[in-house]
Amino acid sequence: MTTSGDLNPNKYQWHLARVINTLQQDLPTLFEKDISYEIYTSDIYFQDPVNRFKGKFNYRIIFWTLRFHARLFFTEIYFDLHDVQQTEQDTIKADWTVRGILRVPWKAHIFFNGDSTYKLTKDGLIYNHLDTWDRQPSEILKQFWVKGNED
Predict the structure, then answer these.
(1) The whole model's pTM is what?
(2) β-bridge partners, 47
């Protein structure tokens, strides 16, 4: 799954550019609207510090859940995309920051950095999405309880 053996190099590069462009378009608005799923395999594997699952149906649900919780729990929430680039033949990496203001009287701020590593099939589709965060989930949750904290 790690080579572009089935597609000629030009066609693979075209698919790769399409995936990068789609990620650049989708990620900044993922808390506001749904992403495009045609760049993912049906058996996409996803892992972050709190979730781990396989399948496009579950992948769709995680993004729906992010939007739902963003609207429910935050007065403001942003996914700041800093960079999306190919780092290896079959790998794309995105660097980002999540920041927001929790819907509580003391307007607690959330802020954390992370990155997403996407692995591509030989056909130029994402089959693996691994997120890492710059701190533990428990540290992120602590930001909700601190009155007057800043980014």
Answers:
(1) 0.88
(2) 52, 130
